[in-house]
Specification:
about 450 residues; Uridine Diphospho-n-acetylenolpyruvylglucosamine Reductase, domain 3; eight-stranded antiparallel beta sheet; about 25% strand; 16 helices; alpha+beta
Length: about 450
């Protein structure tokens, strides 16, 4: 998709604002979008739906100043396609091509450069936001809308919509050299993970826990030459290579999307990890975008859901990302292996980039290295709905961690607002959505309506 001019963007913005103001006589507001990486199923309500699907293009890449101006619905796939020819990439590129810039900003985006650069929202330089009354505001960390700029992270569209953002870029080289180092127990593993992050000698760090006694740290560093190149976009599966190789090489493009082909390891639910099925699908269909489409069709089909229950029995989806302080990471890993049992688990270290800046709706302790645990599967159950997810939530709280809100949550209102800073959120809501046309954060992220 080609870049557009500032003038074209301004015309689209004006048309959208006019549409909103003409229809803004009353009622509540929701956004009409083409893509979502949320794992929250909600009942569709009668709300005015504002169509932002066309705000999906890159506007400008500034090679010298190292930033890109991007519309909010632009996917990272499209953004990376425009920046790599300049030998630049966003400072943090979330794992899947289908994730949008606006989604990663209003949610909590993370990847293997996060041990150096923090979350996606810490790499954003400016937000041009559409408020529910049709007002456009430009927010930075230094202007009169600083409160909105800092409060946008973890707001999930309940304060306004990011029509355009300015994203910080980093220089890259042509290839990434990977090293996979195996450990046999969580304590030594997380000590080593902390040491690698503290030394800061590499460009990327993440890890994979196959079980309690097979744990890998993967480091990546930019290089100008590759001894060979691996390809995990079709026949070969990236996560399996972690157990098979100690050293590997990918192009920078393929490194950024190494998890996308198989949705980490979740492509197993579509049977495409079987070589013959993989061949039938073909290279182009092996992507997070296709898996999302199939998942959405499944969720809209009661017949398919009944058939799945007949085959597998009753299950509870446990699809979460949580951040645990490094000092408690081994404890969480042992708990998770014992009580939940999903395998593999992705881990990704993250630390606050600028200790002088605090993001009030997702506050983290400055100076603390956290470990993100990502787990996405289902557990057979004969317990009440949410039994395993509630266990995870309780353990995260006990270990002084945080939980992302892109999936199901089971907090009471009192628990939720203690965790996600109700005073700061109410202050933002009063200033930027005083009529309450957008849902509040608890409604959107916890209540099933």
């Amino acid at each position: 998709m080609a870049m557009i001019s500032h003038e074209d963007y301004a015309r689209k913005r004006e048309a959208l604002v006019n549409t909103l103001r003409l229809s803004n006589s009353g009622g509540s507001l929701a956004l009409e979008k083409t893509t979502s990486n949320l794992f929250r199923c909600r009942v569709q309500e009668q709300r005015h739906r504002l169509d932002v699907r066309r705000f999906n293009q890159v506007i400008h890449v500034d090679e010298k100043a190292r930033y890109a101006e991007v519309e909010g619905m632009t996917t990272y796939d499209d953004l990376v396609r425009e920046t790599l020819p300049f030998q630049l990439m966003p400072a943090v590129v979330p794992q899947l091509k289908s994730i949008t810039i606006g989604g990663a900003l209003a949610g909590v985006g993370i990847e293997s450069s996060s041990f150096k650069y923090g979350f996606v929202h810490e790499t954003i330089l400016e937000i041009e936001a559409l408020l529910s009354d049709g007002t456009i505001v430009v927010a930075t960390k230094d202007n009169e809308h600083r409160e909105l700029f800092l409060g946008f992270a973890n707001s999930y569209g309940t304060l306004g919509y990011a029509l355009k953002v300015k994203v910080a870029l980093l220089p890259v080289r042509k290839y990434v050299k990977l090293r996979h180092e195996r450990y046999s127990d969580p304590e030594s593993y997380f000590l080593a993970l902390g040491r690698v992050c503290q030394e800061r000698q590499v460009d990327f760090v993440d890890g994979t826990l196959f079980d309690e006694h097979e744990l890998y740290i993967t480091t990546g560093e930019f290089v100008d030459r590759a001894e060979w190149l691996s390809d995990y976009t079709y026949r070969h599966i990236y996560y399996r290579s972690i157990q098979q190789r100690t050293v590997d090489y990918l192009t920078t493009h393929d490194y950024l999307w190494r998890w996308d082909t198989d949705w980490f390891w979740c492509s197993k639910h579509f049977f495409v990890q079987h070589p013959f099925v993989r061949w039938l699908w073909g290279r182009k269909r092996l992507s997070s975008t296709m898996y999302w489409k199939l998942r959405n069709r499944f969720n809209r089909s009661p017949i398919a859901q009944r058939a799945a229950r007949a085959l597998t029995g009753r299950q509870e989806a446990v699809i979460q990302d949580v951040e645990i302080p490094l000092e408690h990471a081994a404890d969480f890993a042992r708990f998770f292996n014992r009580e939940i049992g999903i395998k593999p688990v992705w881990v990704c270290p993250v630390a606050i980039y600028d200790r002088s800046v605090s993001f009030p709706l997702y506050p983290m302790n400055p100076g603390t290295l956290y470990v993100n645990f990502g787990f996405w599967d289902a557990v057979k159950t004969d317990q009440e709905d949410g039994y395993f997810n509630k266990k995870v939530e309780a353990k995260v709280l006990e270990l002084q961690g945080k939980k992302s809100l892109y999936s199901e949550a089971f907090y009471s209102p009192e628990e939720f607002w203690q965790l996600y800073n109700e005073p700061a959120y109410r202050s933002l809501k009063v200033r930027y959505d005083p009529a309450g046309k957008l849902k509040d954060l608890y409604e959107k992220c916890v209540l099933k309506k």
